[in-house]
């Protein structure tokens, strides 16, 4: 990997996203709208404080997975990736550049969504607010990494979108948001233990319920980071120059 080429790729992706107002709205506005709708539905109840923080991580995860998988596939199907890889740019530089670009966007996304949830919607957070932002960023980068990986198995943008329910929905159902993971049947609990979103939701719940959440959150975030690195590494092995 060449740091200069990686940075150049990240800069190119950021320029493309900046000129795409619909994608910017999807990244920055949609999570806030969904969080606001959730707060409105459960106003004057403790439900929003219970599930608001976990969803603050789930929404960026879903959005980043969708945007990254479709954008990467578009680069391949239009022949852009093949032209880029005919230069000194390697697959690792390409994927790392994408991860860096969307990682930077996820920081902005997390700051905007967290600020909106806490100061506009009144989300109650027992732990440090910056931990909430860190976990939200990790969730968004996780969605980016998985989007990069699974985009290699799609031939059209429609197929890329179809991966979302296949990859995201099982994690949403088993992550402990709807029912505590220790109350799941043994088989489903074992599956939940190997899904990265489970640890992200655990970390979000810890921040909202514990004042001294740092040590527990650090372990969950480290596991999520391991999944991110693994997905990017596998993505570099499965990335194809063109869509056949």
The gyration radius over C-alpha positions equals 18 Å
Report, as a whole number of angstroms, the end-to-end distance: 26 Å
Low-confidence stretches: none
Sum up the overall morphology in one term. globular
| Range of helix content | over 70%
How many helices? The count is 11
For the sheet with most strands, the description reads: none
How does the helix and strand content classify structurally? mainly alpha
Written as H for each helix and E for each strand, in order along the chain, the element string is HHHHHHHHHHH
Number of strands: 0
Portion in beta strands: under 5%
Total tally of structural domains: 1
Overall average residue pLDDT: 85
Polypeptide structure, described:
It is a multi-pass membrane protein. The two termini are 26 Å apart. The protein has one domain. By secondary structure, it is an all-alpha fold. The longest helix is centred in the N-terminal third of the chain and has 31 residues. The mean pLDDT is 85.
Keywords, please?
mainly alpha, ABC_2_transport, transport
Give the structure's gist in a few sentences.
The protein has about 240 residues and is mainly alpha-helical. It contains eleven helices and no strands. It has one domain (about 5-240).
């Amino acid at each position: 990997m060449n740091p200069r080429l990686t940075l150049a790729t990240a800069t190119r992706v950021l320029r493309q996203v900046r000129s795409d107002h619909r994608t910017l709205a999807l990244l920055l506005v949609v999570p806030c709208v969904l969080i606001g709708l959730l707060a409105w539905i459960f106003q004057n109840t403790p439900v929003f404080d219970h599930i608001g923080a976990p969803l603050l991580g789930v929404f960026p995860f879903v959005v980043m997975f969708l945007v990254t998988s479709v954008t990467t596939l578009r680069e391949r199907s239009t022949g852009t990736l093949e032209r880029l890889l005919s230069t000194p740019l390697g697959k690792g530089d390409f994927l790392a550049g994408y991860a860096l670009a969307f990682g930077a966007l996820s920081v902005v996304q997390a700051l905007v969504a967290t600020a909106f949830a806490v100061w506009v919607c009144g989300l109650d957070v027992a732990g440090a607010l910056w931990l909430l932002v860190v976990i939200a960023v990790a969730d968004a980068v996780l969605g980016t990494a998985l989007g990069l990986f699974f985009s290699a198995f799609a031939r059209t943008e429609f197929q890329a979108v179809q991966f979302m329910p296949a990859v995201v929905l099982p994690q949403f159902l088993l992550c402990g948001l709807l029912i505590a993971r220790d109350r799941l049947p043994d088989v489903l609990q074992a599956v939940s233990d190997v899904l990265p979103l489970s640890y992200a939701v655990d970390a979000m719940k810890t921040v909202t319920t514990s004042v001294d959440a740092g040590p527990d959150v650090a372990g969950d975030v480290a596991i999520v980071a391991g999944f991110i690195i693994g997905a990017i590494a596998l993505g570099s092995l499965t990335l194809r120059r063109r869509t056949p």
